[in-house]
Specification:
mainly alpha; about 100 residues
């Protein structure tokens, strides 16, 4: 990764991008929403473009597959087996709700 890409990836999300991301993260399962809401409550002011991309990749999953990752029942595989996704899952899990 070159310096420009690194700088862009570590740029904080602006308010509009953050609002779009929050909207995209709305889920059908309450359990997923609990993880995500707690995550945003702790980290939204410091979210980077790279973290938003990783979260977007997770939002492409079905609700049940996402919950399996959040609960640690499964590890990220395929396109999701990336450092940024693994790091973001760690942040999401650190805000684990009592289910």
């Amino acid at each position: 990764m070159n310096v420009t890409t690194t700088t862009t990836a570590e740029t904080l999300l602006d308010e509009r991008a953050l609002s779009k991301l929050r909207w995209r993260c709305r889920r059908g399962l309450l359990e997923n929403d609990l993880f995500i809401e707690r995550f945003f409550a702790r980290h939204e002011s410091g979210l980077t473009v790279r973290q938003a991309d990783a979260l977007g990749a997770l939002m492409d999953l079905s609700d049940n597959d996402l919950l399996d990752l959040l609960l640690g029942r499964k590890a990220p595989q395929g396109d999701l087996a990336r450092d940024d996704v693994t790091h973001l899952l760690g942040l999401l899990r650190a805000t684990r709700p009592t289910l």
